[in-house]
Amino acid sequence: QAQLVESGGRLVQAGGSLKLSCAASVRGFSTTTMGWFRGKDRELVASIADGDQSTTYVDSVKGRFTISRDDDKNTVYLQMNNLKPEDTSLYYCNGIVFGTARWSWGQGTQVTVSS
What we know:
- By secondary structure, this protein is mainly beta.
- The chain has strands at 3-7, 11-13, 18-25, 33-38, 43-48, 55-57, 65-70, 75-80, 89-97, 100-101, 109-114.
- The strands form two sheets. Strands 2, 4, 5, 6, 9, 10 and 11 form a seven-stranded mixed β-sheet that branches.
């Protein structure tokens, strides 16, 4: 059964940094575009393609967040720098296929940024 486990979230002061990890016990990780999402509406924050590992970011995090992946470990990361209070949210990862989530959602990891 597919499982996504996010970790790394915690309380941090504005301007601080965090690195989130998502360990994926799934089939097909290395051939799937992966994304980090946040909030109830699952806003797509960043994505990284399989193969050429091209990346996309929502405007609000460009220049501050960096997504990366390690296909040998079936893990995707989100380096978050210069955090702002508006980044406070529950963060999730998932695969993206034709614009939809590929696997069941994990529990997420809570990021809280204090001002």
